[in-house]
User: Fold these one by one.
Assistant:
Number 1:
Amino acid sequence: MMNRRQAIKTTALASAAIATLPGAMAQTNPTAASPAGPFTLPALGYALDALEPFIDAQTMQIHHDKHHANLNKAVSGWQDYLTRMNAPFIEGLQVLLKDLNSVPENIRTAVRNNGGGHYNHSLFWQLLKKNGGNGPSGELAAAVDKTFGSFTGFKDALTKAAVGQFGSGWAWLVLDGKDLKIEATANQDSPLSAGRTPLLGVDVWEHAYYLKYQNRRADYVAAWSNVVNWDFVSERYAKLSA
Ligand code: MN
């Protein structure tokens, strides 16, 4: 998810771009897509090598700068639609992902795949930090213990889902109503589309780990658990479960 500063920046970019849009839409809508957009690549918030040795700098660079940044290529047709929704993009995206059937059929696949990818990755970068992995705190710590028995029980369940996901996808800790659950999704599908809210996700596409871990996905997931920003996840839980 975008933080407030990024959201402001996106809105500013969108406003700046409005003069270039043709026709009545540009005149009647306060927000519009950047011509290069609609997605703004969020900054990592830490150095590319901050997660070494668990996630290497080259993987981070390719993953963030290439895979994520490429999402804009396949979403022509989006700009008008999101402009009509009159919402900042990440919020607009959440609305769309929560109700894919409401999305016009001609752009539904792009919203699901590219929009889902943008949403998932924007969250993923924020879930990581140097010297992470210390485990949940506060209300989330209590909920994890209650649901999974212990933090170790949680890690085992998430790892099982991550390793068991056939092909590309993600494994998640989600909020299902008030309950915590573990699930996996294929490709860039978001838990939002199944009515759940992602709290924490691990990207198990090969591009997330293959350079360093090759086919050893379980090793990557174990390493990844050392750079999870549990402060962020615990705050996210407190906010979203309130
Ligand atoms: Mn990825």
Number 2:
Amino acid sequence: MPSVDTTIQLIQIHEQPGHTPASTCSSALADAPWNFDATPTYGPGASLEDPIPSTAPRQPGLPSEYRNASPAELDLRIRAAKAALREKLVILGHFYQRDEVIQYADFVGDSFQLANAARTRPNAEAIVFCGVHFMAETADMLSRPDQAVILPNLAAGCSMADMADLDSVTDCWEQLDEILGQELTPDGRQQVIPVTYMNSSAALKAFCGERGGVVCTSSNAAQVLTWAFERGQRVLFFPDQHLGRNTAKAMGIPLDLMPVWNPNLPLGGNTPEALRSARVLLWHGYCSVHKRFTVEQIAYARQRHPGVHVIVHPECPMPVVDAADSAGSTDFIVKAIAAAPAGSTFAIGTEINLVQRLASQYPQHTIFCLDSIICPCSTMYRIHPGYLAWVLEALERGEILNRISVPESIAVPARLALETMLKLSPRPQTPA
Ligand code: 13P
Ligand code: SF4
């Protein structure tokens, strides 16, 4: 099966009357990512319509020698730089990266695994993170101070992470304080424990670390919530309402005890009574990649492929998770497919680069994306071999470009919350 990039180019070519094998959510996906560096958007793909904060980092123009290089030339240059840098360099790649980038990664994994991987090469002088901004910040905070973490394209952010900012979360916390007070419960627990999803800024991780809170990823969210309830009566979960709701629901928490906090409304749009009886307060954030999956797509897959196993990521809305056979992190999805008997059929609800790669790696199975429209994560898509070649060749010359560096005043409290997260390892999950 061709890579997502190749598929998109093929769709572009065939998008003539009478030839539409599939379609994309944006014809601009066929353009190079540097065409969007000057535009104040997340770029083409699933987050295209999401409002981007004016403070979101921008990528200065990529030099023309990289923009104009052919894929074969970039390949030669990247391999040569990697060979020259040897153990001074480690490249990390998230599962959602394009195959054209993943081929150079020393570690490929989900956000939990990559957070750990950042630590496994203490001798590497540079960690080039082919993922998104919050992942690179985390790698910076978990790596040695003299290691440089590099994000090849600074515009590779995350629209979900941007849905919660320090000011609005602090404002929410102060409003909760007024309603709930700060007294410990009779059994000695806090009124609220803040839990931030890994997909959040370093500042929000620090916010949690300063208030007895923690970070979670989609692979250890249940362990983190259990940990948080041992220490608090309620959890304020941000920014992804869906991961929070799906995880808490699976732990038996009733939906009416999980109000949503809308940062644009007083008390988040809730009554004081609802906040007092809440167990989990869900921030009004979501992932535009996973929001695309629907119950109708699952019904259609079941109708077309009787016996299909539907696996979705827990960033999908609750009705989609409920209608699926199983739900789990990207690593869970990878492991479920690796463990399946030959001839299995899977419909997957997660980012298309991972789904299409799994379909290529496991030709003995039938694997397809629930969504027939090709719509990658806009921000993961901003990393391209052109930027990788640019930062690697600079490293070879001793120059560090696009360094992600979290100030110690933020990193110290954020590390507290991250270290707790790393201790709460994902429970081994078995697909249904
Ligand atoms: P995981 O890699 O933790 O499953 O997260 C998916 C994701 O959306 C990363 O941005
Ligand atoms: Fe953010 Fe969603 Fe992209 Fe992950 S897939 S980086 S949550 S927008």
